[in-house]
Every structure is written in C-alpha cells, then in structure tokens.
Amino acid sequence: MRVVIAGAGKVGTAIAGDLHDAGHDVLVIENDVDLVASLRPAIPVEWLEGDACEVSTLRKGNVDAADVMVAATGDDEDNLVVSLLAKMEFAVPRVVARVNHPNNRWLFNETWGVDVSVSTPHLLTALVEEAVSVGSLVRLVQFEGGGAHLVEVTLAEDSPAKGRPLAELAVPREASVVAIVRGRRVVIPRGDTVMGPGDEVVLLVTGECEDEVRRLFVGDALAAPGH
Predict the structure, then answer these.
(1) 184 or 39: whose pLDDT is higher?
(2) CA 77 → CA 18, 20, 58, 106, 183, distances in Å?
(3) CB of 104 closer than 8 Å to CB of 76
C-alpha cells in the first residue's frame, strides 16, 4: 500500500515509521528543508521537500498513485487544503486528516475530501468512556465520508444479548459485528457465537440503525446514547 503523509512533525513521523515497519510504501512531504535533512537518516522512507498545499508538490509526489493520503500537519487549515486536493484533484481513495483544534472537527467531512478525521481529545474521551462504561454504546471512530462509525458496548448482566447466539439477535443490515473481545482474547463473530456479560462487542454501524443496535445490545431502559 502506498501512503503519502503531509507533515513531518511528531505525529507524521510516527505514522511514517510504523507504516514503513509494516512493509508499506511511504512518502512524507515536508516544507521545512532543515527538518527533512535531520529526519531523513533516521526514518528510511521516501521524502519530498515542498508545500503539500500546492498542487505542483503533490503532483511531484505522484499522489495520484497513493492508496491513502494522511494530512498530519499541525495546522487545521493546511490539513483541510491537503485533504481537498488529494480527493478532488488526485482522486485518492482514502483521505485521513488530523484535527488539531477540537472546535474545528465539524469542518473535517466529505465536503473537504476527508474520509476519516482523527481528533485526539475526542478519541481520548471515547477511550475513557470505553474503559469505564458497561451497558452503554460508545462511539470510537467516526468515518465522515460514509456516515458510518465504529461503536463498542460492554455487555451488562441485564443485556438483551446475554446468552443468545448472534444469529438470533436480528442485527440490522446496516450494522455489522466486527469483533468480540473476551478477556484477552478476540473472538471472530459467527452466527452461533453466544455472548455473555463483560464481552466487549465492536460494531460498524450507520446513524440510521444506531438506536436499534443500542436496543439489541443495551436494552430500552438503558438506551442513553454514548458520544
């Protein structure tokens, strides 16, 4: 997979290093020449000196051949411009953008070419909720482009899903159980998989079916939405 990353700050370089170690083809675009010179020996990926907000720079980096574009600069305006250019000018299939200021999160949507936005404060909030919430549906990741999101629910003792095979729950077609975390073990869900209290159920859902998913796994009495 070819990944182009705009921004060689701590976030961008961390992503670049991890993806390179995983065997992916990575290009990092950075405008600071001195920064590139200092990082090039330490991170063995492809480097391009230039402004990622310029079409000419993106063209030089063959962004049209990228599978994923990551806008990871420390400036939200730059990340929005990079995302829009990647999607509209170069038709990159997947655009992931970093949100630096939480108040700007609403801008990072398909209008600006963003498929997935990552806001650290919102992500931390979701992780805290996921860690302490039992019997509540918690949103983990929002996929802006398709209106879908990843949610998690830790089954309570009185969950309607307790002791029932997955096939009996009649999960909506717009939702899919991705995984069940049981203790330290990940269970790949099948129709005959029976869930119990303490199971962490991860689902991919759309907004239209979230209430129904909450009813199936949480119940009507506890159907207070997660964030």
Answers:
(1) 39
(2) 25, 27, 17, 13, 42
(3) yes
Cβ burial, residue 157 (10 Å; 0-12/13-18/19+): exposed
* Residue pLDDT, tens place only, 85-120: 999 999 999 999 999 988 898 899 989 999 988 876
**Separation of alpha carbons 182 and 161, rounded Å:** 15
- Give yes or no for residue 131 having a pLDDT over 80: no
Strand order through the sheet with 2-6: 46-49, 25-30, 2-6, 68-71, 94-99, 116-119, 137-143, 148-154, 200-206, 176-182, 185-187
Q: For residue range 148-157, list pLDDT tens digits in order.
A: 778 888 888 8
